[in-house]
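Re: [ENG-882] Designed sequences occasionally contain unexpected residues at chain ends

Forwarding the minimal case from QA. Structure tokens:
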């Protein structure tokens, strides 16, 4: 075993200076060099009973891949990683490791945890620099077929797991590009599209068939797919945006984060007119919400030329659901955080939004989420000039599939009802997982749901027992 690095803090990761990166869409962190990765890996204690594995929704052998990095065996680290995770370059960039594997790292008792996410990203990027990825030996086909609806993180994980169990897997995607929220929701500067494509290409190289521009519920229904496949997995995410339903919200210049980010990310509107999708380039931009989607929208607005980009959030910074790293990057770049602030109406001229009226809030007792409930301060109304507003307060599933699938039960907000341990829905042969079941959550939780569903699909197809 190499000599251990006893540093109490993570090996720093170099990144673009804030003043430079607000003028481009290049990725912000540069990633580790070989030497930096080895140094960070040697901080790991390689515990005999590693708690970090239990903190990972897809059960990666974290000490296993990190110990190989520490030894300089990068190829071995890749092999260990890909036994459990087919999207390491994505997870290394966007997963909230601070709330999962790193949160339960033994080192956190006295120092910073091992930078698991940074090492995951490093090993995925190292593999990409070596040329085409190594394809593991696959079993003979078992004659069974599974349809995967949606090519986001849940769908990609299900497809990758099942094809390695001998199934013929076809993945159906409504958009023209595979990747789901990874391509339409997360900006280029946080997750480059070439990296998502690299991960998708690996899945198809394993033998998964991909059908794009295929709208299940219109092109074919779930029932029609069940006539051709032994099981169906639904992983279509949560793409129906929420609005606040306050006066003036129908003015021009007010967008859902879904539209704003999809135009910029997937359709490359930030390169207009080179790409033919236009996008609003506001000067005074307000983004309503406090999650990662809100941070992505506010940071995108700066790169589109906003003079002022504001986050409007009704709770305090402590309650913000966004990753600490994303809030930090946003503030570095000049995004203003207007906390304990709630929009109440929009005022416009000639049909376009010009001002936003807000109320100041104060925190009361905790609500069902465990966060302190915001309470309005009477008489605290004020106006702020805006010409663009992005609403990033959450989203629900698109109702198309439930509406066209008899026997598929949904909850109050349109989420498909599925067993959290198996992904089984109320319709025989149909499984679901990810945001379509839980509502908007994280990439890694969707992948974890996909892994559980893949096991359950395998059991169901083999046994025939529902």
């Amino acid at each position: 075993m190499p000599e251990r690095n006893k540093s109490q803090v993570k090996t720093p990761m170099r990144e673009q200076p804030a003043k430079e990166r607000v003028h481009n869409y290049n990725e912000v962190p540069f990633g580790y060099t070989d030497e930096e990765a080895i140094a960070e890996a040697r901080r790991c204690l390689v515990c005999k009973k590693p708690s970090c594995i239990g903190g990972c929704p897809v059960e990666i052998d974290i000490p296993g891949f990190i110990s190989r990095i520490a030894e300089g065996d990068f190829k071995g680290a890749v092999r260990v990683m890909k036994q459990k995770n087919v999207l390491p370059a994505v997870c290394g960039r966007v997963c909230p490791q601070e709330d999962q594997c790193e949160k339960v790292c033994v080192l956190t008792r006295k120092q910073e945890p091992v930078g698991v996410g940074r090492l995951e990203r490093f090993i995925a990027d190292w593999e990409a620099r070596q040329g085409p990825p190594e394809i593991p030996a696959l079993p003979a086909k078992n004659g069974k077929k599974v349809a995967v609806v949606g090519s986001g993180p849940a769908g990609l994980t299900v497809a990758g797991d099942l094809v390695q169990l001998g199934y013929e897997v076809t993945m159906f995607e409504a958009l023209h590009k595979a990747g789901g929220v990874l391509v339409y929701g997360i900006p280029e500067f946080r997750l480059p599209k070439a990296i998502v494509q690299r991960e998708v290409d690996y899945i198809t190289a394993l033998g998964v068939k991909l059908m794009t521009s295929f709208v299940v519920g219109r092109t074919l229904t779930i029932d029609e797919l069940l006539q051709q496949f032994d099981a169906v997995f639904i992983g279509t995410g949560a793409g129906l945006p929420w609005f606040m339903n306050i006066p003036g919200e129908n003015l021009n210049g007010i967008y859902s984060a879904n539209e704003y980010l999809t135009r910029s990310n997937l359709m490359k509107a930030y390169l207009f007119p080179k790409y033919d999708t236009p996008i609003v380039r506001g000067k005074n931009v307000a983004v309503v919400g406090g999650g990662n989607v809100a941070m992505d929208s506010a940071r995108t607005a700066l790169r589109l030329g906003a003079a002022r980009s504001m986050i409007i959030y009704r709770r305090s910074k402590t309650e913000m659901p966004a990753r600490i790293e994303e809030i930090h990057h946003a503030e570095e770049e000049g995004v203003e955080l207007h906390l304990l602030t709630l929009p109440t109406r929009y005022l416009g001229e000639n049909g376009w939004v010009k001002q936003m009226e807000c109320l100041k809030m104060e925190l009361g007792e905790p609500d069902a989420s465990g966060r302190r409930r915001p309470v309005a301060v009477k008489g605290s109304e004020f106006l702020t000039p805006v010409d663009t507003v992005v609403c990033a307060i959450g989203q629900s599933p698109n109702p198309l599939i439930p509406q066209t699938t008899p026997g598929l039960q949904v909850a109050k907000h349109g989420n498909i009802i599925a067993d959290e341990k198996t992904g089984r829905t109320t319709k025989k042969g149909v499984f679901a997982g990810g945001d379509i079941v839980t509502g908007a959550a994280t990439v890694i939780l969707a992948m974890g749901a996909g892994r559980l569903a893949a096991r359950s699909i395998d059991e169901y197809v083999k046994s025939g027992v529902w």
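QA comment: On inspection the terminal residues look reasonable. The chain has a mean pLDDT of 95. Proposing we downgrade this to a documentation issue.
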